[in-house]
Specification:
single chain; 171 residues; mainly alpha; Aspartate Aminotransferase, domain 1; three-stranded antiparallel sheet; two-stranded antiparallel ribbon; 6 helices; 9% strand; elongated
């Protein structure tokens, strides 16, 4: 199950499901009953876009761009904050990364301060059911170019310093 809203355009609002062949027809009927027309022209254009290989080319370009942006952000973290603030999982998937914070850090307050200064990050602790969950900041990097990233990172670093974080930058 997925959507083209994330990979192409948010307002597209076209999703898909990959199902075993025996379920395809019953699900096609269910979808026809639940969702009444309106997107046929857009669906045909999207199908043609995929058939001609343009979608795969777009995905390849975006993967490269996102990989470059993630690497740039990781270099900023390592250079100005130190390796303790690098994401625990160094994988290439996704459009976000997590800066881990010490157990006693108030990631909610840090995120609120960053937002006041114009930088939106999400506190990791809000994704846990229990208050003893990990502390950190979830940073999105997909829609931020290097210049914007550098500026926002400077602001975030100032917020972390104000919260008493100690950095061990790598020069």
């Amino acid at each position: 199950m997925g959507t083209f809203s994330k990979t192409l355009y948010p307002a597209l609002r076209i999703g898909y499901m990959v199902v075993p062949k025996p379920l395809a027809q019953p699900l096609r009927i269910a979808a026809a009953e639940l969702y009444r027309g309106g997107h046929l022209l857009i669906q045909r254009a999207l199908a043609e876009f995929i058939r001609l290989g343009h979608y795969m080319e777009h995905i390849r370009r975006m993967r490269l761009l996102y990989r470059q942006r993630r690497q740039f952000l990781c270099r900023l973290i390592e250079r100005y904050l130190g390796p303790a603030f690098l994401p625990a999982f160094n994988h290439e998937a996704g459009l976000h990364l997590v800066i881990p914070l010490p157990a006693g850090a108030d990631d909610v307050a840090i995120a609120a301060e960053a937002l006041k200064r114009g930088v939106k990050v999400r506190p990791l602790s809000q994704y846990y059911m229990h208050p003893q969950g990990a502390r950190g900041l979830l940073l999105g990097y997909a829609c931020v170019n290097e210049r914007q990233c550098q500026d926002a990172f400077g602001t975030l670093k100032a917020c972390l310093a104000s919260a008493g974080m100690v950095f061990t930058p790598q020069r």
